[in-house]
Amino acid sequence: MSKQAQPTKSPNRAEKKRTGATSDTIYAHMFDAILEHRLAPGTKLSEEALGEIFGVSRTIIRRELSQLAHEGVVSIRPNRGAMVASPSVEEARQILYARRLVERAITELAVQHATEEQIDELREMVTEEHDCFARGDRGAGIRLSGEFHLKLAEAANNAPFVGFQRSLVSQTSLIIAQYEKGTRSHCSYDEHNQLLDAISARDTDKAVSLMMHHMDHIDAKLNFDNESTTDDLHAVFSHIGFARKKAGTKQ
């Protein structure tokens, strides 16, 4: 085969390698969309549409959906495909109860193991969260609020809890999107800072008490009335298409 013929055989594959998203990127975008309440509970997740959005095959999309299903934020049903999980009232109560137990344990361990450097990183995250809400970017603020709890789990220095927490935080975000009252109030900024003060002071009782109060505040905002966002996948991930087109124009 001549050297001149080689480039003309597979330009599409080469282009996909340049513009198609990686598995990690696809997972991160979908996870963030759930945490930011841009994907409503019950939204159908079309493999074809997502493959078109991210520039990858349906096989790759199917793999990422399976991973999200493993974490409890996507439901995959025979002959019906995948959709964003929509917890029932009873499921929501069970998830929140499990979250309370895990948060208590994480807080106790964080008091023992969190370094000052980790606490400083958490404070920076809280500041960024506050800034997002202050400029009206509620979705990013909600995501950072959830990521705060994931980072706290890492500071607890117990690997299994990090995995548990990731699933519980994302499922809690779905519950909030589905059942939160219409007041849209948010006060985790002060609660997170007070919690960090107690952890830094190595005061286990106070830290646990503050975390349980924080969980009470989440519960108080729920009334089990459904409030959906959107089921338009192209609208949710519109920034992905823009980024891919922009990348294509530079090549």
From TrEMBL:
Keywords: DNA-binding, Transcription, Transcription regulation. Residues 20-87 form the HTH gntR-type domain. Pfam families: FCD, GntR. Residues 1-11 have a biased composition (Polar residues). Residues 1-22 are annotated as: Disordered. PROSITE patterns: HTH_GNTR. This is DNA-binding transcriptional regulator, GntR family. It comes from Marinobacter salarius. The gene is lutR.
